[in-house]
Amino acid sequence: MGELRYEISQDAYIKLVLHAQKHKAAAVNGVLIGRVSPRNDDVVEVTDSVPLFHSHLGLLPNLEISLILIEEHYSAQGLFIVGYFHANERYDDAELNGVAKNIGDHICRYFPQAAVLLLDSKKLEVLPKKIDQRPVMQLYIRDASKNWKLVGSDSGSRLVTKEPAANTLLLDYITTEKWQGIVDFDDHLDDLSKDWLNPELFK
User: What is the pLDDT of residue 102?
Assistant: First the structure.
């Protein structure tokens, strides 16, 4: 096996960032859905994402319920939880915290190639001034010692959006406040009529 690369679909990527935009004053998290590419074992295809929580991110009962429901839904499609997304509460906090590492470790037990993506608020802030094709996220993967390590400056080639114009569309959605329609598991557990799959988001 060579170096693993992660290719995230436009919808999966945008959904995660919009979730963070909706709850700017809070830490938020989500999971990545996908599979190992049938054409290349060195590529993890992230085809969808599910926003999890914007309060009490590490609360175990809620987390376990959400992961079971997510796994049941996607396994029928041959898809799995392949990674974790985290956005810190503070704009200037670029560190991967204990909650993120623990949930990442849990996902790795079932999908060893799992990645953790951390929102890079500073990259997101400058995006309107300079459109860049690179995701506004930092990529973390586990090393041989099972510690989470930030993939350095070459992460641009290790983490890519499947559609090159994803950031252009993301900015459009932020400008039009599309983030207001995002439903996460916190919302769903408060009101079961709210659909955590967000089927209407991109219509």
Answer: 94
Find out whether 45 and 39 touch, Cβ atoms under 8 Å.
Answer: no
Q: What is the chain's percent helix, strand, coil content, to nearest 5?
A: 35, 25, 40
Give the dihedral sign, CA 183/82/120/145.
positive
Residues 100, 132 contacting (CB under 8 angstroms): no
Cβ of 57: how many Cβ atoms within 10 Å? 21
- The answer to whether residues 32 and 49 touch, using CB atoms and an 8 Å cutoff, is yes
**How far is residue 69's CA from residue 29's CA, in Å, rounded to a whole number?**
16
Total residue length of the chain:
203
CA distance 18 to 103: 21
> Model pTM greater than 0.70?
yes
Q: Give the count of alpha carbons within 13 A of 163, CB side only.
A: 13
- First-to-last CA distance in the chain? 39
pLDDT value, residue 38:
94
The tokens for 160 are 């890519």
Q: What are the E-state strand segments in 12-108? A: 28-36, 43-51, 80-87
Non-local CB neighbours of 155 within 8 Å, separated by 6+ positions: 138, 139
